Amino acid sequence: MFKLACGFALVLVLSGCSSQSSSIGSKIYRMGERVQVGPLIYTVLETEWLDQIDAPIPRIPHDRFLAVRLTVTNSGITTSGIPPLSVSDRRGTSYPELTDAEGVSEWLGYIRTVKPADTLHGRVVFDVPTAEYRLKLSDDAEPENVKLATVDLPLQLGAPRIPISPTAGQ
Question: C-alpha distances in angstroms, 61 versus 52, 81, 91, 93, 126?
């Protein structure tokens, strides 16, 4: 009887955990999709891997720099802060964005705001091992009311190859 009660309690605990985690950011978005998180609308446009940041003093990463180009639109009626972003790998290891990526073209900066009906375009940068990641997005609400979303960042090294037909140009 004790084993049965423990088994039932374990099922209740596990089902409670799974419903909670599925209600927060359960949908995984793809790059290019419009992702609304509170009043902020994110669109992740592309990723680029960098071996260094060319600045007056070049910066070498611990692993590699992952630059994520995105847009953020404020659909709200007041100016909104854009919170720091993070990426996580398949094992769940989380990496925060760099607080200083000066030298990266279109760097958004670390402390940023967006006015109502305005859109920011630029890049955020991470120092991470080369792998696939998920970008964690949020709004600037109080911690108990924060809204979350996740975007898949597939591993894409180098420029995409365009196949050339053997009959091209004939």
Answer: 6, 27, 21, 18, 9
